[in-house]
Amino acid sequence: MPDFVRQALDARGLMEAYRKRPAYQQNDYIGWINRAKRRETKEKRLRQMLEELERGGVYMKMKHPASA
User: Fold this and answer.
1) Looking at 1-68, which runs of residues are DSSP E strands?
2) What SS3 state is found at 64?
3) Where does residue 55 rank: exposed (0-12), middle (13-18), buried (19+ CB within 10 A)?
4) What are the tens digits of pLDDT across the range 9-65?
5) Distance from C-alpha of 65 to C-alpha of 45, rounded to nearest angstrom
6) CA gyration radius for the chain?
7) 5-14: long-range pairs with CB below 8 Å, 24+
8) For 62, phi and psi rounded to 5 degrees?
9) Residue partners of 33: CB distance under 8 A and separation at least 6
10) What CA–CA distance (Å, rounded) separates 38 from 18?
């Protein structure tokens, strides 16, 4: 996990919510964020992940009842 992602999760108190997600979701989020070429895109994707973890019940803008 990149340091900037770990720091963002820790700062928002979302590491536990992240760890509770299935491994495929954790890997998808990290890979999706890291594949972005521009810094602005990485930050946008990171914000989306953090918002979805805070809300629960959402994964990649899709309903995900198991994480609610």
Assistant:
1) 58-59, 62-63
2) coil
3) exposed
4) 999 999 999 999 999 999 999 999 999 999 999 999 999 999 999 999 899 888 888
5) 21
6) 11
7) 5/30, 5/33, 5/46, 8/46, 8/50, 9/50, 9/53, 12/50, 12/54, 14/50, 14/53, 14/54
8) -115, 150
9) 2, 5, 42, 45, 46, 49
10) 24
CA distances from 59 to 6, 28, 45, 62 (A): 19, 10, 12, 5
Residue with tokens 């900037």: 4
Question: Whole-model pTM?
Answer: 0.89
The structure tokens 């973890």 sit at 53
Distance CA 37, CA 15 (A): 25
